[in-house]
Design a protein that fits this description.
GO terms for molecular function: oxidoreductase activity, acting on the CH-OH group of donors, NAD or NADP as acceptor. Belongs to the short-chain dehydrogenases/reductases (SDR) family. The chain is an alpha/beta fold. Helices cover 44% and strands 14% of the residues. Strands 3-2-1-4-5-6-7 form a 7-stranded parallel sheet, sandwiched between helices. Helix 2 links the parallel strand 1 and strand 2. Helix 2 packs across helix 9, helix 4 packs parallel to helix 5 and helix 5 runs parallel beside helix 6. The N and C termini lie far apart (41 Å). The model has no long low-confidence stretch (mean pLDDT 92).
């Protein structure tokens, strides 16, 4: 028999979460997992109709969710959302992601600025907005979705690697800064996941052959496999975990 005490370590009942980039892919699966653990989840993205549909999907499953449509790179609009929220989120998942796979010779500085704005600066800005409410509540949890492309580099993708590396560094800095307030800041670094954004790669036999050779688990990650990592980092059971990057990549980053 599973004890109630054990389950309570991963119970998010009464918590409020804001998940950015939650309209599809890993963001939606993270939002679903947090809602399944008991949290009320705000689904953020730029496309209101898609968010309405996703929130309705979760409600149909008996879960608590609402859309929160705003552009994370528009700091004024983001501040307006936080000011209007009936209750400030005590969980923030910075998942909004932009990728531009081009080599340095083709990637202009302004393109890099855009990658950093979405992948790193937006996380900084939203965390800054969320912290006052978390302090008033006596604590909270921030999870930044980085990538194995931060510490590991492949040719022809410098902008994304730069941005995700910056987000991992921000995770460490904020973990140290906000720990005295009971606010934990961690990150999840996904590997190769079969999301909508990677659909063309999923169907590419050469990529499949590469994963079979490079990944110990010899397959793509399934989007639903990311959610439990987020629940753990946000839950009471991880109360002494901060500044950590939890890698979810099927062992790819540890294989020689």
């Amino acid at each position: 028999m599973t004890s109630a005490a054990h389950l309570s370590r991963f119970d998010l009942t009464g918590r409020v979460a804001l998940v950015t980039g939650a309209g599809r892919g890993l963001g939606f699966e993270i939002a679903r997992a947090l809602a399944e653990a008991g949290a009320h989840v705000w689904l953020n993205g730029r496309h209101a109709e898609l968010l309405d549909k996703r929130a309705a999907n979760l409600k149909a499953e008996g879960l608590s969710a609402d859309p929160a449509p705003f552009d994370v790179t528009n700091h004024e609009t983001a501040a307006e959302w936080f000011a209007s929220a009936k209750r400030a989120p005590d969980i923030l998942v910075n998942n909004a992601t932009l990728r531009d796979r081009r080599p340095t010779s083709e990637l202009a500085p302004e393109d890099v600025d855009r990658l950093v704005a979405v992948n790193a600066t937006a996380a900084y800005a939203l965390t800054r907005l969320a912290i006052p409410g978390m302090k008033r509540a006596g604590g909270g949890s921030v999870v930044n979705v980085t990538s194995i492309a931060g510490p590991l580099a492949g040719g022809g993708d410098p902008g994304y690697t730069l941005a995700k590396g910056a987000l991992a560094a921000l995770t460490r800095s904020h973990a140290v800064e906000f720990a005295p307030h009971g606010i934990r800041v961690n990150a999840i670094a996904p590997g190769f996941f079969a999301t909508e954004a990677n659909e063309a790669w999923v169907d590419d036999r050469a990529v499949g052959d590469y994963l079979a050779m490079r990944s110990p688990m010899r397959r793509w990650g399934r989007p639903a496999e990311i959610g439990a990592a987020a629940v753990f980092l946000c839950a009471p059971g991880a109360s002494y975990v901060t500044g950590h990057v939890l890698t979810v990549d099927g062992g790819m980053s540890v294989k020689m």
